Amino acid sequence: MAALIKNATKFTVVGGAVYWSATQGVWGTCDEGAEVGRRLTKSVWLTTLEQTPKVETVQTNVFDQIAKNWNAGITFLFNGVANLPDLCKNYSSKIQETIKELASGQKSA
């Protein structure tokens, strides 16, 4: 019996939503759908403005700081990529010297 009530409630809610949307014109032509969208946006926007308390905003330059950090990160990344061949060359020569020293016995591991 509980499953029957549960399913009947679901069908009622879905059926009501479909009926309401059909009466509003959602399932009509493109122009009718656009008009429904405009009405809905207008009503939601006005309700939101009425319910939103008036808050004073502080003018900050958050986006300027974000842009500076982003640019610094990109510069760091590309400088690292540009210097990568030199770093590889330096480390490979150090590795070769260390291997030669270990092979000749001059340096203990």
Short description:
It contains 3 helices and no strands. With 109 residues, the protein is an all-alpha fold.
Polypeptide structure, described:
This protein is elongated. The protein has 109 residues and is mostly helical. It contains three helices and no strands.
Helix-strand layout with pairing:
Elements: H1 2-24, H2 30-51, H3 62-104
- Spans with pLDDT under 50 lasting ≥5 residues? none
The ordered string of helix (H) and strand (E) elements is: HHH
Helix share bin: over 70%
Strand content: under 5%
Through-space gap between termini? 80 Å
Q: Briefly note the structural class of the backbone.
A: mainly alpha
| Mean of residue pLDDT values | 84
Radius of gyration: 34 Å
Largest β-sheet summary: none
Shape: elongated
Number of strands: 0
The count of helical stretches stands at 3
Protein name: MICOS complex subunit MIC13
Family: Belongs to the MICOS complex subunit Mic13 family.
InterPro entries: Mic13
Subunit structure: Component of the mitochondrial contact site and cristae organizing system (MICOS) complex.
Key features of this structure:
109 residues; mainly alpha; 81% helix; MICOS complex subunit MIC13; membrane
